[in-house]
Design brief:
Elements: E1 5-9, H1 16-30, E2 38-42, H2 48-55, E3 60-63, H3 80-85, E4 90-93, H4 96-102, H5 106-118, E5 122-127, H6 131-135, H7 139-150, E6 162-166, H8 180-196, E7 206-208, H9 217-221, E8 228-231, H10 238-246
Parallel strand pairs: 1-2, 1-8, 2-3, 3-4, 4-5, 5-6, 6-7
Helix pairs in contact: 1-2, 1-10, 7-8
Pathway: Carbohydrate biosynthesis; gluconeogenesis; Carbohydrate degradation; glycolysis; D-glyceraldehyde 3-phosphate from glycerone phosphate: step 1/1; Carbohydrate metabolism; erythritol degradation
Active site: 95 (electrophile), 167 (proton acceptor)
Binding site for substrate: 9-11, 173, 211, 232-233
Length: 254
């Protein structure tokens, strides 16, 4: 049985006031959800503790980035162990903004995934193609490479700490969204790649991200290989985020 997950990535947004009001509102609503979805809040690292205090145990907390090193002279970096120490259970890895703006390669992603899984955190490994790559017919090949190389260091007993989030770069923050059919096709392709590399593909949760909103979430989440979402802008509006969480269908996928 695969986990159903909706994770809110605040990116470089937030404040102590937002953490109190938004997380408090979401936390108060999560208890009434009967669809079995796990709700995760991923704020900027400086607000992780504030979010954890408001979560009441009903919400999981994640971190947006960790370093690929265990510890040492890496000023400004945060280790996976530090994130765990602050109550994080999830961490984003390989988000397209990290790849594009900070030059993170598949090799760096693999090193970070290894650090996270080794200390017991769940890595949400982000993959996705650019518009140019899609228009050139390279989308599946690009995503397959990112999956294979980013997960190259995962040990056989650590696959339960892996979640893959497909976020087409052309749909992030643009208002454009892949159709439910297109998203499902890529998720099915990813599941095939996971099987190809020896992972327990049918038990790994796959999330869709890229301009997910309250009015398109249900159609996306109804697809057989889409197990939830990685939500950007809509996660900053409590009512919208809760509505997206409610859009996850009840029942199991396996």
């Amino acid at each position: 049985m695969r986990r159903k997950i909706v994770a809110g990535n605040w990116k470089m947004n937030g404040s102590k006031d937002l953490a109190k009001k938004l997380v408090g509102h979401v936390q108060s609503e999560v208890g009434s959800l009967d669809n079995g979805v796990e709700v995760v809040i991923i704020p900027p690292a400086i607000y992780v503790n504030d979010v954890a205090k408001q979560s009441g145990g009903d919400l999981a907390v994640g971190i947006q980035n960790v370093g690929q090193w265990q510890s040492g002279a890496y000023t400004g970096e945060i280790s996976a162990d530090m994130a765990k120490d602050q109550g994080c259970r999830y961490a984003l890895v390989g988000h397209s903004e990290r790849r594009q703006l900070f030059g993170e390669s598949d090799e760096v992603v693999a090193a970070k995934v290894e650090r996270l899984t080794s200390c017991g955190l769940t890595a949400v490994v982000c993959v996705g193609e650019t518009l140019d790559e899609r228009e050139a017919g390279q989308a599946e090949a690009v995503v397959a490479r990112q999956v294979k190389e980013g997960l190259a260091n995962v040990a056989a007993d650590q696959w339960d700490r892996i979640v893959v989030a497909y976020e087409p770069v052309w749909a992030i923050g643009t208002g454009k969204t892949a159709t439910a059919e297109d998203a499902q096709a890529m998720h099915a392709s990813i599941r095939g790649v996971l099987s190809e590399i020896g992972a327990p593909a049918e038990s790994i949760s796959l999330l869709y991200g890229g301009s997910v909103k309250a009015d398109n979430a249900a159609a996306l989440f109804a697809e057989p290989d889409i197990d939830g979402g990685l939500i950007g802008g809509a996660s900053l509006v409590a009512e919208d985020f809760v509505s997206i969480c409610r859009s996850v269908p009840a029942g199991t996928k396996s």
